[in-house]
Amino acid sequence: MFEGYRIANTLALDSHARFGCEAQTLEDVMAAVSFAGQRDLPIYFTGEGSNLLPSKNVDACVVRMGLPGWEKTAESEQRVRLRICAGENWHQLVTLALSRNWYGLENLALIPGSVGAAPIQNIGAYGVELSDFVRSVRVLMPNLEVRDFDASSCEFGYRTSVFKKLTNHAILSVELELSKEARPVAHYPDVERWHERNHVDTPSPQTVFQAVTEIRRDKLPDPAEYPNAGSFFQNPVVSSGLAADLSRAFPELNVFVLQEETAKLSAAQLIDMAGCKSWQDGPVQCWQDQPLVLVNRGNASHEQLMEFAAAVHRAVDEQFGVSLTLEPVRIPG
Ligand SMILES: Cc1cc2nc3c(=O)[nH]c(=O)nc-3n(C[C@H](O)[C@H](O)[C@H](O)COP(=O)(O)OP(=O)(O)OC[C@H]3O[C@@H](n4cnc5c(N)ncnc54)[C@H](O)[C@@H]3O)c2cc1C
Question: Which domains does the chain have, with CATH numbers?
Answer without folding.
Answer: 2-65 (3.30.43.10), 70-179 (3.30.465.10), 189-219 (no CATH), 228-237+264-331 (3.90.78.10)
